[in-house]
């Protein structure tokens, strides 16, 4: 087993689980790993179907106590909420009330196993929801009604903004806004002052159809947008440097490795 590099961990639900997939030639996780290659390992801990209560129950298994020689958690991206925001149905039990959701997020970011690493923490808003599409698919698989609602999901994204604002040092990544801004811009004639895209009241899916194919999960275009808003937060210590292709490597670049001096001595 290779010795561990410092880590970037993607901790979340199916949105992060799917970040490993390569669709239409793009993978969020691969793009991020390419950006930090030789500096960090990008670890995917996306858990499909999990809400924040589930996440807390397994957190000690994912983030064990810091030990000498163990990996150092440098960056932590947290993305939960799509399942917490689901409504309670006889066929679905993922819902977490919004006040508890906020409390759970605070417990995650202040958990002793995480705080021991002093990582840079990013809270990510759940993406928008296309309730029109969700309703079609939920009814087709046997739910009595939609498991998720546009307006409720938006409230959970707002809750993430509030938690980030109340948590010193935590950075907000507003995925909801980034995707909705693109969807509105690419839906000709849509009135943003009316019901939101994907809301049955307005009846317009618009460009959310491209960004959220099943109404919930991200398309490759959405993952690209997601990566574009994450990318500037990583690598400030080497970005823009003349030698940025070598700065901050865990193991030295071959041109600066100590054995070069030894080889020169032997040749001399």
UniProtKB/TrEMBL annotation:
Record's keyword annotation contains Transit peptide: no
Signal peptide positions on this chain: none
Keywords in alphabetical order: Hydrolase
Domain of life where this protein originates: Eukaryota
Presence of the UniProt keyword Hydrolase in the record: yes
One function term, GO molecular function aspect: hydrolase activity
UniProt cross-references to SUPFAM superfamilies, sorted A to Z: SGNH hydrolase
InterPro entries, per database record: Iah1-like, SGNH_hydro, SGNH_hydro_sf
Domain SGNH hydrolase-type esterase positions: 10-225
A Pfam family hit: Lipase_GDSL_2
Protein name: SGNH hydrolase-type esterase domain-containing protein
Organism: Cladorrhinum samala
């Amino acid at each position: 087993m290779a010795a561990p590099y410092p880590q970037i961990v993607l901790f979340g639900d199916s949105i992060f689980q799917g970040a490993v997939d390569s669709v239409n030639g793009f993978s969020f996780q691969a793009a991020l790993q390419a950006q930090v290659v030789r500096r960090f390992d990008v670890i995917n801990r996306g858990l499909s179907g999990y809400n924040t209560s589930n996440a807390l129950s397994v957190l000690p298994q994912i983030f064990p106590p810091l030990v000498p020689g163990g990996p150092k958690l440098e960056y932590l991206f947290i993305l939960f909420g799509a399942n917490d925001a689901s409504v309670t149905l006889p066929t679905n039990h993922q819902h977490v009330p919004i006040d508890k959701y906020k409390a759970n997020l605070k417990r995650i970011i202040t958990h002793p196993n995480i705080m021991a690493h002093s990582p840079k923490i990013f809270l990510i808003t759940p993406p928008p929801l296309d309730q029109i599409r969700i309703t079609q698919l939920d009814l087709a698989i046997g739910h009595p009604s939609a498991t998720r609602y546009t307006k409720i999901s938006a409230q959970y994204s707002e809750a993430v903004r509030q938690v980030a604002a109340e948590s010193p040092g935590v950075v907000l990544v507003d995925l909801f806004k980034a995707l909705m801004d693109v969807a509105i811009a690419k839906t000709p004639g849509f009135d943003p002052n009316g019901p939101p895209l994907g809301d049955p009241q307005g009846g317009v899916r618009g460009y959310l159809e491209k960004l959220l194919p099943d109404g919930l999960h991200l398309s490759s275009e959405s993952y690209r947008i997601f990566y574009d808003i994450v990318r500037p937060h990583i690598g400030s210590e080497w970005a823009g440097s003349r030698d940025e292709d070598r700065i901050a490597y865990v193991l030295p670049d071959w041109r600066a490795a100590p054995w070069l001096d030894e080889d020169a001595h032997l040749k001399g």
